[in-house]
Fold this protein.
Amino acid sequence: MVQQTPFNFAFHQFLRQVVGTPALDGHLYVATEADFARAGNISFPYRSYFYAFGLMHEDQCRIRIGIRDFEVPKQALTLIGPGITRLWLDNNWNVQNTTFFFTPDLFGPPFYNNFLLDYLFFRAGAQHVLVLSDQEYARVKDLMRPLQQYSDVPKIAAGLMFALLEYINALYDQQGHSTTAVGWNHQLVSQFNQLLHTHFQQQKEVGFYADQLNVSAKHLSELLKQETGKSAKQSIDELVLFEAKSLLKQTAMSIKEIVYWLGYDDPSYFTRLFKSKTGVTPLAYRG
């Protein structure tokens, strides 16, 4: 039977393997560069079950989230929801940061179920990096401080986390990422990214996405090339390969299972496609 859902890093497994923490209970962990230095870094694309956001204090790094590459400079927030594949492109794992990892189980009543899905910045295809002004950076730090202090008291931590997320949401809106304040081209690129992350398994033709966006396939590709440097077809292929690399390194799924999960019927065709783009076969990449 083909495995329908790929493996994601579970919360506590990620903390043990990537952050280097001992086994612990709870649904919130606050990490700094000292935590990351204890464990090995991840050099392949990976996905996770939980939510994460981090504040960069000094230095800088680069991250690929889906098909987009983001610079993460000093005083930037990185925001990633569950199920989103990412890859650290340039990170020595010693950059000064404060990073919060948490699961929805942190929140009980009076919070309603799935309220975290209301935050657009946690969704696939969002603007996952926010660069803050000096004042915004100071306020985020001020809100993080008590959350770090009460991270082991769930009911208090939940309230403090909610306050912090609401402030981040206000910043996200002010920067124009969740409103119509941004230009049409930016909106179209964002909508394409969201559609692609939702439908890439079933839909790999440019025409499908162009129809959904009410533009021609040619216009969509030209706009994407202008805004991102990649055509629509390049973007589709790149996301498929990015997900394939995550599955090959992070799961025990067979090559055939991965091929079917990605929406292909012919493993030999996918093997040729993968090798043409990466220079190695899927089996060789898995190592």
Summary: The two ends are 24 Å apart (CA to CA). The longest helix spans residues 154-174. The beta strands are 28-32, 51-56, 61-65, 68-72, 76-80, 86-90, 97-102, 129-131.
